[in-house]
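tool=predict chain=A
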Amino acid sequence: MVDYFRDSGSIMIATEAASEGINLQFCSMLINYDLPWNPQRVEQRIGRIHRFGQKYDVVIVNFFNEGNAAEARILELLQNKFHLFDSVFGASDEVLGRIESGFDFAQEIAQIYDSYRTADEINQAFKELEEKYADTVSKDMAEARAKVFDNLDPSVRDRLKSYDKQSGEVLNKFEQLLLLLTINRLQGLAEFDGDGRNFVLHTAPAEGIATGRYHFKSSPTEHSRQYRYSSDLAKHVINGAMNADTPQQTLIFDINKSDRVSSRMKELVGQSGSLTVRSLTFKMKASDSDISESYLLSAGVTDGGELLNEEDIAEMMDLRVIDQADDGISIDNELFEGALKQQKVVLEKEVQHRNSRYYNQQEELLESRILDLDTERRKAIRELEKKRKELRKQASRADDPMEQLRFKKKARNLDEDIDAIEDRYRKEKRDLRDNVDDLLILIKQSLRGKRTETELFTIRWRVTT
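tool=predict ok
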């Protein structure tokens, strides 16, 4: 059933049996039709789809009966007290495990169900249960959070989503880069408060951009505008950075001044080298639509000859630059060519295989539709021929010549209906064949698509403390 759901289905309805031992990581939504008394069971259900490697944001929907006070309190307890749906990744499991080792949580809730009937009695019982274990939950949640996040590399922390009280204020990687880019590009034009999420634009960098106060992923202040990726100001910032001149310089990165420092960057302290970052665009068209794809290429090397991989360079770009200089050392681009060529080969295969696979699937669908049309044609013709045969029998048995003529005319009309079905089938088949031919052309285009490579920047670097 899991295989069928993954390959063909869109919705799976399952009993509690689906909460253990199966991988539904290809899904992104879980609907809890009923909330079990045992919070560990809810955790198990979520764990089917919210796993390491999940590529999509996971949405959990919980149904509960608003007219049932006990169900409403169970939801409140799970969400607000145990933070089951918004806690640090992995923390709820550890906290619930510790609490369950001290008492049977499900049994206590079941006892509330069995012993109380009125809403007031149920609320009071749940209140006493929450107060009884409030200190334990708070203490264990804090310890679990520390275990998850202390001493982890920034790249690891990025993969663990922290949904605590500040979840609405936490910036993802993209938002962090946009904010840092904005601070850099608006130097001298704007005044930034704190970490930069609130700022005042004193001078408009271009015509049509409003000055004044802006807020980004924070509470709005009086008369402030929301700073968004799609706003005119953000577009100006991004376009300006994309078109900025990037001469070869030596950049000095300081790990003590940086917020995000990986263990790999600590290993490079005191070393220097060079690196390059380029964009690779695969020019492709589907009919008249541009479906080009662009990727970043990066390669680097230390002065000692050690190669830097893409992850190393991405982590270096997280470091804070404290100074830059033109030391006059020329950069030999031949040092990067081997690594860049390898990346290009991998990307080209991925793009070609993905596009070819998509077009092949579309071709198979069209061929399947042609077979379906043929099946429908044969069925319709068989039914009409059966009716025609019966009409001709009736005509041969009729004594009245006028009656014979009427039956023959009806049979003749069926001949015309059969011809119409054949004509319609040939036309639809020809149209589908044309679509298949178009797809074959697109497959050929995707395999022979032109690619353009542009150097974004090439620098000398030095990591210091």
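The CA atoms of residues 32 and 107 lie 20 Å apart. The radius of gyration is 33 Å.
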